[in-house]
Design brief:
The chain is mainly beta. The protein contains three helices and 53 strands. The strands form 16 sheets. It has a five-stranded mixed β-sheet with strand order 12-18-17-14-15, with no helix packed on it. The protein is elongated and about 180 Å long. The C terminus is likely disordered.
Length: 723
Amino acid sequence: MASIYGPVSATGWQLRLDYTVSQDAANNRSALALTLYIYDGTGESYNQAANSCRYVLQGKTVYQPYRYESKGWYKLGSGSVTVNHRSDGSGSAALSAAWYSGFTSQWTPASLSVAQTVALPVIPRASGLQAGAMTLGQTGSITVQRADAGFTHKINYQIGSAHGAVCGKTGETRVTWTPPLSLAEEITDAVAGDCVLTATTYSGTSVVGTSSRPIKLYVPEEVKPTASLAAQVVNDNAVIAGWGVCVRGYSRLAYQVTAAGARGSSIRSCRVQFAGQTAEGLTGQTGMIQQAGTLIPEARVTDSRGRWVTAQGGAVEVLSYANPTLTARLLGRCGADGTLRDDGDCMKVLCAGACSPVGGHNTVTVRYRLRPVGGSYSGYTALENGQEQIIEGVLKTASYELELSAVDALGSVRAVEYAIPTAAVAVHLAQGGMAVGVGKYAEHDKAVDIAPDWDVWFRGKRLLDAVWPVGSIYLSASEISPETLFGGTWEQVKDRFLLAAGDVYEPGETGGEAQHTLTKAEMPAHTHGYDFTGQSDVTGVTAIRLYDADGRRNEYQGASASAGGGGRPQQYAAVPGRVCLAQDGVRRKDERYGIKLSNDTVRFLRTGGSPLAAGSESGGLFPGRGRRIREKDTGSPDGLSAPGGHDPGRRGGQQDLGQLGRSIGTGSSGRPGEGVYAIPGDPGRKAQLGGAGGQPSRRLYLPLYGTHGGAAAADGGARALCL
């Protein structure tokens, strides 16, 4: 607060004007609050005429009667005034006031006055800035918004730890600026950084004020990392390494990437792609190359700003490779002149092999080896590729296994094995009469030796069907399938508990759980009692009322414990079917029985018939009574592809494994066929079988279910095969 004073009268009277200044910088103006005081210099004085005495404040008249009883300052009134400042922020106010007593006396002056022009505080008027985002190394513009045409200004920048001048003192309202590209070193983890522009405003040499504006500075697109890629083929196979080529399935690619950031950035990642593979890191190796052709390795390097660049290495020629192919035929036994004869002591074969050229480096050789059944193979003997040839030294009284194969320079082999029986004879009595051969020469002492392509029939059935009819269960601790041992088609029964039953359960019902949570009804019957302390008063039959130590009753009450649990036995969820056994030519229902199998027991269910008859195409029999028993393929990087439509490892003359649930069974005229009604893990699925001869086939029901896990499920609730 400040004050101005008027002159003192002869009798000691005076006016005083107090003022307080508040400023509006945005509108460049000040507001003054005024208070007018008068000093009584003589003592008691008054004028009660309402229209006589008055004061004037800033030109406004106010009539005011007065009565002053002693010397001192008395408030007359208050007012206000608003003053606009000049453009430079300076300003002043002319203040004035007067007082009129309404009369004249020796003690009271007729009038008093006070007037003065006062300087007001300067309002700072700093220039403002207007600017948008800029790109380093490219020119942008900054607009200066100044309050007075006489103002000048300086502009500076600050980004990270870097700072400097945009321009020196200037009166221009549009300033151009090219942010230095070196400022990218202050923006290393992003493509843009925050920069602050600051303007200092001058009026002459005096600083009026400062103002700031943030802007974005962008690193230009061309500021990217640099990279180069070098690669070489790596071969672990000594043969291919000697050839000096890259081969699909055998070779890898080793790489080295040289990379650097730009303008302060660092390398964040490197990804190398080649032949459909991706590897991470500046150095490394791919896996085995699985594509062929002319391929180019490429590296993608990314820096800390997220900017990336690609680099390519030299083209790599990847040569294709596959295992050798083999076309082999066992034409049969023959004489030395090559004439096919069932009792010949030579074998005529055709063996043709081919291999991948691998740039002209690879070669293929065809060969054979021979061994008597139960003996050891001889060494390999080369054959002429693609030519019929005669193999000597094959006794007509002995059985052999013959292997024909093609092998390439990499050691990959395609082979096929044949079983060569003895020469065909109806019956042969061995020397000494201690062995008999049927359909072949006898080869085992004290044995009946039957040719492999002959069947044994018993009571109008093949021996296999008589001993192991369709639907039979074979138990063994060996993993060897009975298909290998006896022939026919079998399916291994897995993760099932065998339970046979008759009258209680019907086929086709479902159920079973690997785990079971007991219900209340399945829990043992039991009761619960109450456990409490304090005094009690039992009212009625089912209420309990508790008291505290002071005898106050608590209204806690509840029913007494009743019996819990139903005591109901746990039930099997597995629903068995029926086992029907042949007795005196009539199928009758057998008594119920159960079978518990240990975990190391292998179970097989026969699902199909006997092997196909000799001479069938899929049986693999040849005119000379030789049987293809196995095809094998080794060393292939791309899997097995056996020629001639044969699956590798498949026994010749044998049907595919049947699946549980497929329709199987045989029938002859006048007799119903025997079939299987099987549900493998899908209760309710049905496979309907029918026999020939105009009669419906009888069915063996073999549903597969689970159990609750009760006491009877000895393997802890495992699923069950119910017979």
